């Protein structure tokens, strides 16, 4: 089967999450839905068993492309991961502050429109990179692609649900279509443009940092009343699948 066709179907599946996450009524539960905790566990499992191990190999690409010593090259790779985490942390803080200020001044439990669109813009950048990486991963096996897709699909459920919760009206009216456009654009660029290995490594590192922050932001706050066992189950099941796939590839 044509690989581009397979990844196109996967990109369209990502788009269905953006469009229809508001209709997943089983997620709208108090306390928090166990499915969201499960999805968070899978996403974290992906980061620790796929992205972090691959950063070492990408550090070699940095070393060759930039001519830095091995230790310094590795530090740059992890600095990019930290950059992704810090970027989304800053946006989440801006959302929280804006929401609190508007609640105090206007009685509306919504962030300012500009801050919300900053959040959507950062999320669009992240999903564009994820869609691009559908066609350009370090591990180009079928099993690796399926695991990447499954982990990112569940991550998007968590991330999009959180984005919509901030401002449902704006998300449903325009925000979700921005994310759809970013997904399709990222996939299309991935079919036409092959970036140097050093850039691919940087993108992987950036995605890893972003996912860690998004997942922990959704799982850790006390008011979310998240669940440990579903989170653990998601991480454990995904870890077992990854390790099994690696054993079969040996």
Automatic annotation (TrEMBL):
The chain crosses the membrane at residues 6-24, 36-56, 76-95, 115-134, 140-163, 175-193, 199-216, 228-249. Keywords: Membrane, Transmembrane, Transmembrane helix. This is Divalent cation transporter. It comes from Qipengyuania spongiae.
